[in-house]
């Protein structure tokens, strides 16, 4: 499944959700930030040209406009239960300003290139209990307007994870699964997405035939090379639409779509709206 998700509200929480039935593989990005906590389950995540194994106790942080692909192992004997927090960093930062240490920590997660975005918690049962307890309390006392409650929860969550995140040694951090083949392909896409796609050129970099490189990539990741190329282009177009005054045609050209009509069709297919409609939306500040 290939799509770009949008925020309907500045802070959205989904606590302790069973995604086992039905489960769909997710390949997308958000204009806001996204935090996952896996209560139960196992699988892999692709982000920033790396593949990571994830399991119960994994904590994941994705920056705004950062494409990521999740592929979870789901079956009768393998449940998938997760909590998901999506939010606008600019909106949430206003709540963090009275707390300088938390503000600095949040800014580090959102903007530092050195952030290790997937962590395996050393004692996951503590955070698991903490999130489930909040879920029970929210269900017992529902509110009509939950935005303030969600902001307070997110404040508490960052206060909870800050010492955990910062206390990790290199041995504690979830390291990417080594797959040089996939890394080479993803790096090539990141460097050449603005150009006309030529499978033959990519195959030469991978030292394989075009058919074999396509087959092996899809077998390894579950997605086609074109899927990853498309979302990289749509990500770039979304950023340019929100952060520049370039015309829609120029945005398409700089994102790998020299044909204006095709760019508009592709953008609407994956974003659910035209480039002009996307640009007219109030941006979620990062």
Automatic annotation (TrEMBL):
Q: Which UniProt keywords apply?
A: DNA-binding, Transcription, Transcription regulation
Q: Which SUPFAM superfamilies match?
A: Homeodomain-like (SSF46689), Regulatory protein AraC (SSF51215)
Q: Which Pfam families match?
A: AraC_binding (PF02311), HTH_18 (PF12833)
InterPro entries xrefs: AraC-bd, Homeodomain-like_sf, HTH-like, HTH_AraC, HTH_AraC-typ_CS, RmlC-like_jellyroll, Tscrpt_reg_AraC-type_HTH
- As recorded in UniProt, coiled-coil segments are none
Lineage, top-rank taxon, reads: Bacteria
Residue ranges of domain HTH araC/xylS-type in the record: 183-281
MF terms (GO), sorted A to Z: DNA-binding transcription factor activity; sequence-specific DNA binding
Q: What is the designated name of this protein?
A: Helix-turn-helix domain-containing protein
Q: What is the phylogenetic placement of the source species in the record?
A: Bacteria, Bacillati, Bacillota, Bacilli, Bacillales
